[in-house]
Amino acid sequence: MSEAINKVHHQLFIDGQWVDGDDKQTKEVINPATGKVIKTIAQAGEAETTRAIEAADKAFKEWSGMELKDRVNILRKAADLIEENSDYIAEVMTIEQGKPLAESKLEVIDGAETFRWNAEEARRLYGDIIPAPNAHHYEIIYQPVGVVAAITPWNFPSGMVTRKIAPALAAGNTVVLKPSGDTPLTAIAIFEQLEQAGFPAGAVNLVMGGSDVIGRTMTDSDTVRKLTFTGSTPIGQELYKQSAGTLKKLSLELGGHAPFIVHSDADVKASVEGLVAAKFRNNGQVCIAPNRVFVHEEIKEDFMTQLKTAVEALKVGNGMEEGTKVGPLIREDAIDKIKGQLDDALAKGAQLVTGGERLTEGAYVEGFFFKPTIIDNVNQSMNIFYEETFGPVVPVISFNDIDQVIAMANDTEFGLASYAYASSAKVIFELSTRLEYGMVGINEVKISNPETPFGGVKHSGFGRENSHLGLKEYVVEKFVNTRYL
């Protein structure tokens, strides 16, 4: 057993204390690379979640009323502790989630930077003065929402946690976090650092357990004034409905189905490198991963040759092994979904270029491994054209006209991320303005940074994370009209 897994806590964190659930219920955490149980963790229900909400409510006055410089110093201390313990947190993440250790380490370091950036941005939560009649003063001030409930997914068990709680805390709110049941240990490892950073008891709380019970407790609570969620569109829609009764503020970062467009004047080598980096990061289990690759017919032959070489060179394996570029999928059902999409596409005329099968021999026998895959001749009759693929499959579609490719790229209910490679200023302008997505990467696939807004449109949700816009998601605007008598 890993020393990091032995070290990490297994309990809930409520009101500054590590505690078991009331009924002592537990859940096993599985290593997707081996299929083996690595830890058994405590589970919360309605009662424990309610206590966590009450603890956050009690701590809100102290945390929001703290001198700004003191609050900033605690946030900076949290960032330092996360970075200092990044090797430990990254190892926990790789073992419970599967991604290569180098990817895990970068994710943890990015999370520390998210805390640092939001600590500084808290100093710039400026209000506004509005011109007013004589003897009046019009002012807009920003105040924290109150108690924030956060629900995070399994694919970025560190990044999603820090992206949500850092701005919430920076704005003066207190937090109750529910991480994914598949990857709770990374969240626990982060909360171990928050415990040492100096937050008041109750300012940060962690509950693990059944999504239905904990989610409903959060949405039904009038004390919870903000819910932030990252996950699938159907679950986001359900949380949206459940929150209607309490009219709480919401941020929903939901499904994606990103197009990746390679125009005739693109740098083919750069586009292949960008595609492989973006698509096979976390084994394709990324909401902003390219899911439909549109390649201009004039350059397609060269592009496909380079892409096949690059994909077949990827090393698949346990994320703890040096040199691994592609780890396991999170669960068995992820493989079932990929196989279903591939079977449908191939039956309707798609061509298998490479991959297309589960890896089951030798070191792969117990884990959830799938060979990096490329299919060509994909069209709009196939499920994979419309269904988000959370896995290592590259579907390629040909095009010969910019209006045609923009129409196909926009032919989806999702609108999170999009990518395009081109050289012409006119083509770049057309793509960047007409693609119906919250984010567009032109000749670049890195579109997530602490200082830049992250979020989508249509069925990909609403609200923004990161940037000054992300911080504003955790405040309410108050207008003050003063008349001087």
Automatic annotation (TrEMBL):
<dbReference type="Pfam" id="PF00171">
    <property type="entry name" value="Aldedh"/>
</dbReference>
<dbReference type="GO" id="GO:0009450">
    <property type="term" value="P:gamma-aminobutyric acid catabolic process"/>
</dbReference>
<comment type="similarity">
    <text>Belongs to the aldehyde dehydrogenase family.</text>
</comment>
<feature type="domain" description="Aldehyde dehydrogenase">
    <location>
        <begin position="18"/>
        <end position="480"/>
    </location>
</feature>
<dbReference type="InterPro" id="IPR016160">
    <property type="entry name" value="Ald_DH_CS_CYS"/>
</dbReference>
<dbReference type="InterPro" id="IPR015590">
    <property type="entry name" value="Aldehyde_DH_dom"/>
</dbReference>
<dbReference type="InterPro" id="IPR050740">
    <property type="entry name" value="Aldehyde_DH_Superfamily"/>
</dbReference>
<keyword id="KW-0560">Oxidoreductase</keyword>
<dbReference type="InterPro" id="IPR016161">
    <property type="entry name" value="Ald_DH/histidinol_DH"/>
</dbReference>
<protein>
    <submittedName>
        <fullName>NAD-dependent succinate-semialdehyde dehydrogenase</fullName>
    </submittedName>
</protein>
<dbReference type="InterPro" id="IPR016163">
    <property type="entry name" value="Ald_DH_C"/>
</dbReference>
<dbReference type="InterPro" id="IPR016162">
    <property type="entry name" value="Ald_DH_N"/>
</dbReference>
<dbReference type="GO" id="GO:0004777">
    <property type="term" value="F:succinate-semialdehyde dehydrogenase (NAD+) activity"/>
</dbReference>
